[in-house]
Specification:
- The chain has 3 helices and 5 strands; from the N terminus they run E-E-E-E-H-H-H-E.
- The chain is an alpha+beta fold and 96 residues long.
- The chain has one domain: Outer Surface Protein A, domain 3, CATH 3.90.930.
């Protein structure tokens, strides 16, 4: 049987408190008491994921002109997602 499930990224919860800084964002997690300082790309990726679960490709394309996204740009977005996942800000899962 063929599965059409896609890897989707989503925020762990909606309780994060954001503070926009000149070179990124500060994100406070009231559930753990941790504050994360994000550079510009992870902050932009988090903003995209915060709206709804999305694939890596959809997140990358939402950040600018899809024609500007080559393999290197996709890798940067994927790296930002993994960074956010290690910080326990976002999670991933397979959805149909």
């Amino acid at each position: 049987m063929y599965s059409t499930a896609q890897l989707m990224w989503f925020c762990r919860h909606k309780s994060f408190v954001y503070d926009r800084l000149p070179k990124g964002d500060a994100v406070f997690d009231p559930l753990t008491g941790e504050t994360h300082f994000l550079s510009v790309l992870p902050a932009m990726v988090l903003e995209a994921v915060n709206e709804a679960p999305q694939t890596t490709e959809r997140i990358a394309h939402s950040l600018g002109d899809p024609a500007d996204f080559d393999a290197a740009a996709m890798k940067k977005v994927a790296d930002a997602l993994r960074y956010l996942e290690r910080a326990e800000i976002v999670e991933s899962g397979y959805f149909p």
